[in-house]
Amino acid sequence: MRRFLTDRARRAVAASLRGATRPAAPSPAPAAALSRPSPSAPSAMAAYMARAMSTSAAGTPPVSLDTINPKVLEFKYAVRGEIVTHAQNLEQELHKNPESLPFDEILYCNIGNPHSLGQQPVTFFREVLSLCDHPALLDKSETHALYSSSDAIERAWQILEKIPGRATGAYSHSQGVKGLRDEIAAGIAARDGFHASGDNIFLTDGASPAVHMMMQLLIRSEKDGILCPLPQYPLYSASIALHGGSFVPYFLDEETGWGLEVDELKKQVDEARSKGITVRALVVINPGNPTGQVLAEENQKKIVEFCKNEGLVLLADEVYQENIYVEDKQFHSFKKIARSMGYTDDDLPLVSFQSVSKGYYGECGKRGGYMEVTGFNADVREQIYKVASVNLCSNISGQILSSLIMNPPKVGDESYESFMVERDGIISSLARRAKALEEAFNSLEGITCNKAEGAMYLFPRLHLPQKAIGAAQAAGAAPDAYYALRLLQATGIVVVPGSGFGQAPGTYHFRCTILPQEDKIPAIISRFKEFHEKFMDEFRDVSRDEAPTGA
Amino acid sequence: MRRFLTDRARRAVAASLRGATRPAAPSPAPAAALSRPSPSAPSAMAAYMARAMSTSAAGTPPVSLDTINPKVLEFKYAVRGEIVTHAQNLEQELHKNPESLPFDEILYCNIGNPHSLGQQPVTFFREVLSLCDHPALLDKSETHALYSSSDAIERAWQILEKIPGRATGAYSHSQGVKGLRDEIAAGIAARDGFHASGDNIFLTDGASPAVHMMMQLLIRSEKDGILCPLPQYPLYSASIALHGGSFVPYFLDEETGWGLEVDELKKQVDEARSKGITVRALVVINPGNPTGQVLAEENQKKIVEFCKNEGLVLLADEVYQENIYVEDKQFHSFKKIARSMGYTDDDLPLVSFQSVSKGYYGECGKRGGYMEVTGFNADVREQIYKVASVNLCSNISGQILSSLIMNPPKVGDESYESFMVERDGIISSLARRAKALEEAFNSLEGITCNKAEGAMYLFPRLHLPQKAIGAAQAAGAAPDAYYALRLLQATGIVVVPGSGFGQAPGTYHFRCTILPQEDKIPAIISRFKEFHEKFMDEFRDVSRDEAPTGA
């Protein structure tokens, strides 16, 4: 009984706190609950009791859901949400009793984590890292026999020379080792054809902490809004919620291959402003996550112009810049676009995020990445530095790897050829996998799927029968979550329901990575097909003239 | 003129925002400004103009100090603050023109960063790391010739077996690799003699992100307070400010060797509560930073009892657990103390922070660490996991190193002897350096210094002449900041002013690490002495009977 009261009271307090600290959520909610029922309206009595309980002295725990930060309680992160927890439980079950389930392994297609599915690290990068981790190897003659190319050894020397005291075990400058930042800047300049400076690089433990830093800087209260795509990578909605801001969605247009239209941006900004929201920044993910589209240059120009006119910071998530799978598209950084339009550092605050976790390298476990920060005045830059300094610095292996991906072996280097074989092998295989999965999805009844032009995901749309939607409702789950759960239980394949990324009202999707190794793709496709066909057979809406008598 | 107005307006807005979002700061301010004059009282006109400027459309930058998150603007982080920036500028000057300054190198005694000052990494740890970074080495016969012991190779194999797919390049579970967490838990159990579970370990990129996670969880608004020592490591004041909470200070007693008295805790909690603050947690740093004291077991018991009675979370910063320099003191974890008192997981929420950056290893650049989270209910634990999951996971090298420091070579292992020689060499040298510096400080006029029983710092007190305090005021600086700046300019030695850590009103200190290599200590001491004596000669208060005629 007491437990029941506490639970009710908890939900009431959580709801009332949400009301007190956040304006009405933008509709649709960016990351709806997977299966948790929405809290019932708070009754004054329940709220009073919860408060009385949480402040009474002895007997109650010092920390409960009633008394934690409601911003923590509120946000969702579906990429590692309930469906993944369920998959982990099934995996443990499989481990204990391999015969207990209708499949023999869990296939994690929920997250862009290539090495977990068998992708091998790029040899050159790992050789350099191992030498930097244990520089004593560099002094030994046997080392040459162990390493595939002399330029890995040479590169390790060069990197160590850039690190004060060659101390890879020391905290660096809070933006990262200056010499490595300069190397990254040179890589950016070579990519874009425009100047870049190491002073503008902030090395971070992956792109996520960089995104948090910018949100922390820009968001003062729930009156500050950040424009984000829908569907979006839920890092953004989570970070905005954690920092107490307002998520201002703009919709990507599924009909035009997840097109990003400036008219839609303008409409959403105006609407947010009419509600008293100060829109601070625009998030663009290019190539798109979860949608896989690659923006056209003309489109990017319009977006830059829009940010300039509206006084917005452009937060460019460009972590998939090396993942392009179609001939007719190319990656252009937003900085290159802005500079090519004649805009200088004085015209437009622009932050570009990059990560060692994506691309052909996929080194998620190294937690390396950087942001290139341009167009902020010196005072504000100093504050960004201060925020970076509280965590002292990012990990040095990640810093080194960030410099390597922006300055890989070049023509003429001993390792160049073998490096390119590895690199192109990965990229072209990803392209084939994307195509095979897309075609498989499109071949099925009730599924349509845009092409993955880039990134690591497909985001197929489920045209679910009414009967399936009814079954989901009866189970207390969102229809796409219900589908994903049934898929997991039947096949061991883990995908993320579209509701975790946000989707147009009344539409249902799921995100599926293209990362299982190529030799597994046919089996995955046939397992998927078999499940889907059975699912449709179970739920297919029966038209009237086919209805059995008596229905 | 416009710039002047903007600056005035900026300060006015910042001040008014501070007023609006935070209650009166606890006195004394935990981290007072180094040299920035306090903002003048906002005039309504200036505030109005600033607001008008910041919201006017075109022409003004989208982001300025007026429009960033005031919590970012407010917090200070002296360990990498203005004095360090000044030192970095001097270093560049030295680099360009080695003869321009009265010293030939900058000695960074501002930060616990041992490898930056020449401490060598522990061989066993780095051997294992390099093998895990490039597992292909493990398959080659030449590898044995390169590595000093076969157990490093064996350990690398064991670690890879714990990582799913041996993929050190994959994101792990958001708490860290389960097998590594289990190994850490076994190390904790061996240390404490009480059970520990890998399920309670959250691996993080150093201890700082773990502290932020707990602050994010616990702080709902400025009405939530966190009890922190004064002096304190400014990570705490910075994190509390960034998360919008109230810093509730308790004073360590310098007279009794920086004693932590429960009466003082009680007094401060009661006072905070009388102001409407809900005190959520107590931060204890043991061994102390910046103070170097090691708590006695009896004292720790009283602290645990206090937290239990007052319903506080105990946040135990135990990152210096291996840095103990005196015979009569020993490290006891708070969990061991609590369990030895009979308190179980149900009695007391307790978080212990550990890091690979400290101890004899000092691997700051690896950004490894963990928190052991006990005494929270499952609902709340789930929320902590959710916060961890937004950044996906901590870096795998840091995770591996965390497991190594909690499970170093043991008696009987091939590498044990050489490992112990390295380990003990570092610890005993640190103890000698601490003693030499302490004695040197205590030998000087106007300085008193407690013993460093542990950690990596001394926190000497400056008994400054009135004339020196006057000179500091004339220069617009805090007296200890003025002293630190003069020291830097005369000797190249970088210390952090006591005001960066907080100190009892009217007292002045500085924090100086004990980390310069041992062969440099005599020269540092003589440079320091020479500076200090000149400083005292310049400012010594002249007593009346010695006053020159006419003064």
What does this protein look like?
- Two copies of one chain form a homodimer.
- By secondary structure, chain A is an alpha/beta fold.
- Chain A has three domains: 2-68, no CATH class; 79-105 and 428-544, Alpha-Beta Complex (Aspartate Aminotransferase, domain 1); 171-406, Type I PLP-dependent aspartate aminotransferase-like (Major domain) (Aspartate Aminotransferase, domain 2), CATH 3.40.640.
- The first copy, chain A, is 44% helix and 11% strand.
- Chain A contains 19 helices and 14 strands.
- The first copy, chain A, has a seven-stranded mixed β-sheet with strand order 2-8-7-6-5-3-4, with helices on both faces.
- In chain A, α9 (207-218) packs parallel to α10.
- The radius of gyration of chain A is 25 Å and the shape is globular.
How do the strands and helices of this protein lay out in sequence?
Two copies of one chain form a homodimer.
Chain A lengths: L1 H20 L22 H12 L14 H5 L7 H15 L10 E2 L14 H11 L9 H4 L3 H13 L15 H15 L8 E4 L2 H12 L5 E7 L4 H8 L3 E6 L10 H13 L3 E8 L11 H14 L2 E5 L16 H7 L9 E6 L13 E6 L3 H13 L5 H11 L9 H27 L4 E2 L8 E2 L2 E2 L3 H9 L4 H13 L1 E2 L1 E2 L10 E6 L7 H19 L12
Parallel strand pairs in A: 1-12, 3-4, 3-5, 5-6, 6-7
Antiparallel strand pairs in A: 2-8, 7-8, 9-11, 10-14, 11-14, 13-14
Which outline of chain A best applies?
A: globular
**Quaternary status:** homodimer
Q: What structural class is derived from the secondary structure elements of chain A?
A: alpha/beta
Count up the helices of chain A: 19
The CATH architecture category of the largest domain in chain A equals: 3-Layer(aba) Sandwich
Please identify which CATH superfamily of the largest domain in chain A we are dealing with. Answer: Type I PLP-dependent aspartate aminotransferase-like (Major domain)
Largest sheet of chain A: 7 strands, mixed
Task: Name the chain pair with the biggest interface and residue counts per chain.
Answer: A-B, 101 and 101 residues
CATH topology group of the largest domain in chain A: Aspartate Aminotransferase, domain 2
Helix content of chain A: 40-55%
Query: How many structural domains can be distinguished in the coordinates of chain A?
Result: 3
Q: Provide mean pLDDT of chain A, rounded.
A: 87
Pathway (chains A, B): Photosynthesis; C4 acid pathway; Amino-acid degradation; L-alanine degradation via transaminase pathway; pyruvate from L-alanine: step 1/1
Enzyme class (chains A, B): transferase
Protein name (chains A, B): Alanine aminotransferase 2
Subunit structure (chains A, B): Homodimer.
